[in-house]
Amino acid sequence: MKIGELSRATGTNIETIRYYERIGLLPEPHRTAANYRSYGDAHRARLAFVRHSRELGFTIEEIRSLLDLSDHPERECDEADRIATRHLEQVEEKIAQLTLLRDELTRIVGRCRGGVAADCRVIEALSDHSHCESAH
Amino acid sequence: MKIGELSRATGTNIETIRYYERIGLLPEPHRTAANYRSYGDAHRARLAFVRHSRELGFTIEEIRSLLDLSDHPERECDEADRIATRHLEQVEEKIAQLTLLRDELTRIVGRCRGGVAADCRVIEALSDHSHCESAH
DNA sequence: ATGCACCCTGTAGCAACTACAGGGTCAAGC
DNA sequence: GCTTGACCCTGTAGTTGCTACAGGGTGCAT
C-alpha cells in the first residue's frame, strides 16, 4: 500500500509517518519505480504499535526500547515492564499535580465577581502566590 | 538588582528571564555602565506574576493577555475570568484523559508475569488496541 | 493535453524553554 | 599589577513530537 493508504489505515498523518521513518522508528519501505513508498502488513502492524504507544503517552525513546524488545522475542521482558511501570508512575504523579492545580484554579475562578481589572480576584490571585493553598 | 539576584529572588532561570524579555513578556530593564541589566521591585512583581501563572499552567499568550489587563486596571475583568475558566476546563479534561490512561496502564502493567518478550503482556497489549477497555 | 489527486525531498515552524560558545566586567587576594 | 573566579553579555542552536509549507514529479481520467 502507498503512504496515503497507510495513513488512512492507521489514522496517522502522512508527514508523521515520514517523520517516524526519518528518526528510525519505522524501517525504510520498498519503493515503486516512481520512487513511491510501498508498505506491507508488517509495516502497518509496527506503525499501529507506535501509534498505540504514543496514545498511551510513551515517549519516542521508550517506544524505541519497546520495539527493540518486540523485535527480539527471546529476551527477558522485564525492561518492558520497567518502562510501563515508570510511565504509570509518571502519569499518576501528573494526575496528582493537575488535581492540585484544578483545586487552585477553582478557588481563583470562583472568586471573580466581575467589575474592573483593578478589583479582579483572578489577577490578584496570580499576583500573590501567598493566597494559594497548595504548593505548585 | 542584577539578573542573578532576580533569578534567585523568583526561582527563575537566568536564561528564562532573558527569554521572557526577548519575547516581550518582561519590559527591558535599565542597564548599568557595564551593560548589565538592572531590575527594580516592579520587575520582580511582574516576573512573579508570570512564574505563578506558568506554574498554574497558563500559556505565554494567556499570560500576555492577563498582564495586559493588569496593566489597565480600568478595564472590565471578564477577559481574565474567561481565560481562567477556559484553562480550568482544559485542566479538568486533561485529568479525565490521564485517568483513563492510568486505568489502561494499570491493566497492562498488572498483567506482566515476567519471562521472555515473546510472551510479554505489555508488548502484546501495545500491539493490539482491541485489548483496551477505553478509547484513547 | 490538462486537470487533479497523490507522491517526493528538504527545510522551517510550533511552545517554552535550555544550553552552549565566545566574549566582557568586577572585586578580592597575592 | 596581575590573576582567579564569579558573574554578566549576545547570539545561536538544541529539545520533543510533530506539522506545514515550497517546489517539484507521477498517474489516471476526461
Count interface residues per chain for the largest interface: A-B, 52 and 52 residues
Helix content percent band of chain A: 55-70%
- The percent range for strand residues of chain A is under 5%
The secondary structure category of chain A is mainly alpha
Gross geometry of chain A: elongated
| Biggest pleated-sheet summary of chain A | 2 strands, antiparallel
Name the poorly predicted regions of chain A. Answer: none
Instruction: Give the number of DSSP strands of chain A.
Output: 2
Task: Provide a descriptive summary of the structure in words.
Two copies of one chain form a homodimer. Chain A has 136 residues and is an all-alpha fold. Chain A is 62% helix and 3% strand. The first copy, chain A, has helices at residues 3-10, 14-22, 41-55, 60-71, 78-110, 121-127, and strands spanning 30-31, 37-38. The first copy, chain A, has a two-stranded antiparallel sheet with strand order 1-2. The radius of gyration of chain A is 23 Å and the shape is elongated. The interface between A and B is large, with 52 and 52 residues. The first copy, chain A, binds a DNA duplex (30 and 30 nucleotides) through residues 2-4, 13-16, 18-19, 23, 32, 34-37, 54, 59-60.
